[in-house]
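Hello K.,

You asked for the raw outputs rather than the summary table, so here they are, unedited. I folded two proteins back to back in the same session to keep the settings identical. This is the first:
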Amino acid sequence: MTTLTDRYLAATLRSVPAPRREEIATELRASIEDMIEDRTTGGQDTATAEREVLTELGNPAQLAARYADRRLQLIGPTYYLAWERLLKLLLSFVPATVGVVVGLVEATGGDNPGGAVGAGIASALQVAVQISFWVTLVFAVLERTNIPLCLPEWSVDQLPEGPVDRQITRTDTAAAIVWLTFVIAYLPWQHFQSWVSDDGGRNLPILDPALWSFARA
């Protein structure tokens, strides 16, 4: 029957490089025995001291990662800010652009103009997910392989000059978003309900899809 120390060592050594296992086992066992001896000298029971020492050392998987110099985070502090800046930049315009383009194509050249808004939103969400996944994957690989990004060092010269008055108010921004949403939604809706009708009383789209016939070419 193995002791707690033996079990702890086995769990730790399982995740460290094989060439270093004997060295780490000798070092770690000696450290554990010294820590237990310090506690038993003070009058503590050996079994209790052993349990407390191993608890203090923590999860053996985390200890093995420290011995192996292996990171336990997906994106560490070295690459986190670069990952965050790139992800925010791409998500700020790429999904919206793709969504608008897909919505326009569906509304003007597709067989289902009524589903243009849904198609645009779905495409934007898919693009956002793909961007998040691939950017994170690339930075995770960089984190694991320690590939330097050669980014410029931060300096005080990069500090902003001071608070700048907003040239565009939040109200204007919100109004622009509402108006853009209305325009995108109206493109498919006009095929079913328009303000204009022809001589026969039939619905007449204001923005005729024939104007964008190249989209169907």
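The second followed immediately with the same parameters:
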Amino acid sequence: MHKPTDARAAAHPATPPFSAGQYSILRNSHRNPDPNSILDIPCSDSFSVIVQLEDFASHRLWRGGRLSYKGGHVRESTSIAYLGDEVKCQHLAPYDNLRINLPRAPLEEALYEEGLSRRIALNCPPGTLDPVVYHLTQSLLPALTMPGQVNRLFVDQVMLALCTHISARYGNTADWPEPAKGLSDWQARRAKELIAHHLSDGLSVAELAQECALSRSYFTRAFKRSTGMTPHEWLLQMRVDKAKQLMLHTALNLSQIGLDCGFSDQSHFSRVFQRITGASPSRWRRSHRAGD
């Protein structure tokens, strides 16, 4: 008879878990899992979104004491498990996946903010190929490898987009209503001021929304309706604008300018600057200084 073991002791996470507000993100991998171990997943009123980073040949999954799945999953596939169902798992092959824990409460809060009041359940068949979930979760991987350089505003927006997508596609919800109206003048002014004052460290969407007396999801939609950009895109644009001023009016080197404007390193600065302006920082600086 197999002896259950604690999931945290047997899973061998490749990187430490990362917490983003009420959510947690964990990369789990094991090259040689013990096929005789059955992992007891702690019960909670939450959903576990599991995205396979490599092909997973075989495993067994129990819910409420009954075997509910036996088989494997291909790379880029998604499964969603409700952790209140007494979930147990047996890994029968090497695995590498990303797991995002989503408590039920914030999902239902997001629905309430959209004018829907109901208890949500998610129904995602095991091994579903969902490119939206895969690419959103891929953008979160740097948060696990470089937690000290994480932009909280970006992570918040990715998590909000993920929650919105899985609720709309896999939840027992009606069609989403029309996007929110734009921000009022004072709300737009306050949000822009806050972003400008936190170019180097950034602010979370929740903090910006609170300052504008709005819910997080309503604020994000209203901000984009008012400005044509998400809060994160606006932040990057302001960082680039500040970098232009420093390049024109100081002798600082590009590496220092990038750091002063809140970019993690010169490579990050160059990528964002070229995407927004169409030119590398060094080329832009040469051409604009030559025109003085």
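The chain is about 45% helix and 20% strand.

Happy to rerun anything if the numbers look odd on your end.

Regards,
P.
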